[in-house]
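Subject: Sanity check before I submit

Could someone independently write out the structure tokens for this chain? I want to compare against mine line by line before I put it in a report. The sequence has 300 residues.
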Amino acid sequence: MAPPSQWFAPSPARWYHSVLIAFKLGYGTGTAWYKTSDDGKTDRKLVEAIKTAIKMGYYHLDGAEVYNTERELGVAIKESGVPREKLFVATKVITNISDIPNAIDTSLEKLGLDYVDLYLIHSPFFAKTPTDLQTAWAEMERVKSAGKAKSIGVSNYLQPHLETTLATATVPPSINQIEYHPYLQHGSLLSYQQSSAKIATAAYGPLSAVTKAKPGPVDEYMAQLAKKYAVSEGEISLRWCIDQGIVAITTSGKEQRLSDYLRALTFTLTPKEVQEIARLGEGKHYRGFWNDIFGPDDRA
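---
Independent answer below. Compare away.
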């Protein structure tokens, strides 16, 4: 397999295909690991958890400046002993969105890296005007041109945000990382990304329907599929994303759970099963993040 540094081409579709094949499942350093501030101290528990994930084969590592865990991610990468070129490291900017050139330099310093494989704008909600989105994206393009990010993308963008960005983009976003699970399917967003914009999708919170959002209309069917494939409902949830061509980001501090999640790479749902989960999921709405932005019934 070619290392990540050799995968990038002008075509987002090519990038998407390569990452999907090699890194269908990513390890996230936010959510449970989130720190409210960067006090300069290193959380050894998190470092060891990331090292364990890497040892188990989680080579797609997802971070962000706002998580305040980039320092731990960098230490874990260094101590893991895995060659840099075998890893796919992503981070995001939002806290310092007004100064992206400085933000990427600060992130790279904390990570102890010369470049990241993927650099994302963490959300579009900082923007007060369309020009704000376009200006930020132009700065992201300069980060890529400088070789500090192999690829650039966005997170939590809706179709209008993508359309605004694409209107002036020289390099289109490679990927949009969004909360995605059966109870938050985002209407026509994915079909727009796949067919019109050629932007890949990554899912965070992919386990929500079988964890935080229980009980719900997918429960019985997920249990049936878990029994059929001899896996957990969590692994069915991850596979549901993967079988739609979506990169799934998950996390845990428990080694056994991480091992279990890897079973999502050992089987495939049928197209009918993927469709049935989606159909049942439409019967409930649940959003775990950004509830201060969206109304209680807003499924965008």
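---
OP: Matches mine. For the report I'm noting this point. Residues 77 and 84 are 8 Å apart (CA to CA).
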